[in-house]
């Protein structure tokens, strides 16, 4: 389990503490609380890490002095577009889950968050299939500079997607353990912040890796 997974699970645990659940009604979750602010600060730190990965990619590309990506690498652009659509769709389902949480509809929250977790899992499976295809054609993490930056940047992002899927599962499980509370609704909102961040970062990676060649 990576550090981002542990932090997300800690956040979803923290919002279960009644002392941290300032709102008394689910419908009053419009005012930011300390958990939400802390999540935004955490995401800002993660953004800096990804900025470093983007910088590494562009520096490597500038210093390559030749074809980019180099032979024998052949990126499956249509496949990448398909899994991108799947991941972006999960942002919409996650947001609909937030709307359900804000109105106290735990059954709709479960449906939307379960679907979001499923879409995230499908995305990861699609990315794993692409990895297998690239390795089969000779592109490995240690075989070239391009292979290194490709697998590091996309792999780091995949770890964040996995953390988000696990966070969805934690939120879902807790809705079955006790009566739905404002604290649980806040946890759902916090997880959605993280998930939207992961989706936006992937769009940037997708454009950078598959179109700026």
UniProtKB/TrEMBL annotation:
It is an enzyme of class 7 (translocase). It comes from the Bacteria. Its EC number is 7.1.1.9. The keyword Oxidoreductase applies. InterPro entries: Cyt_c/ubiquinol_Oxase_su3, Cyt_c_oxidase-like_su3, Cyt_c_oxidase_su3-like_sf, Cyt_c_oxidase_su3_a-hlx. Pfam families: COX3. GO terms for cellular component: plasma membrane. GO terms for biological process: aerobic electron transport chain. It is a multi-pass membrane protein. PANTHER family: CYTOCHROME BO(3) UBIQUINOL OXIDASE SUBUNIT 3, CYTOCHROME C OXIDASE SUBUNIT III. Belongs to the cytochrome c oxidase subunit 3 family. This is Cytochrome c oxidase subunit 3. It comes from Corynebacterium urogenitale.
């Amino acid at each position: 389990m990576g550090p981002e997974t542990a932090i997300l699970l800690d956040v979803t645990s923290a919002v279960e503490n009644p002392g941290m659940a300032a709102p008394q009604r689910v419908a009053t979750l419009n005012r930011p609380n300390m958990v939400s602010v802390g999540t935004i600060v955490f995401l800002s730190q993660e953004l800096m890490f990804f900025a470093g990965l983007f910088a590494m990619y562009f520096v490597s590309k500038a210093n390559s002095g030749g074809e980019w990506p180099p032979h024998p690498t052949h990126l499956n652009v249509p496949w990448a577009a398909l899994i991108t659509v799947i991941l972006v769709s999960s942002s919409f389902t996650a947001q609909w889950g937030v709307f359900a949480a804000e109105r106290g509809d735990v059954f709709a929250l479960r449906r939307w968050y379960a679907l979001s977790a499923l879409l995230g899992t499908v995305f990861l499976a699609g990315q794993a299939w692409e990895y297998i295809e690239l390795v089969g054609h000779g592109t490995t993490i240690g075989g070239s500079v391009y292979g290194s930056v490709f697998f590091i940047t996309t792999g780091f992002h995949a770890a964040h997607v996995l953390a988000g899927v696990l966070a969805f599962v934690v939120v879902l499980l807790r809705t079955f353990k006790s009566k739905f509370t404002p604290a649980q609704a806040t946890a759902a909102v916090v997880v959605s912040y993280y998930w939207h961040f992961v989706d936006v970062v992937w769009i940037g990676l997708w454009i950078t890796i598959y179109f700026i060649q």
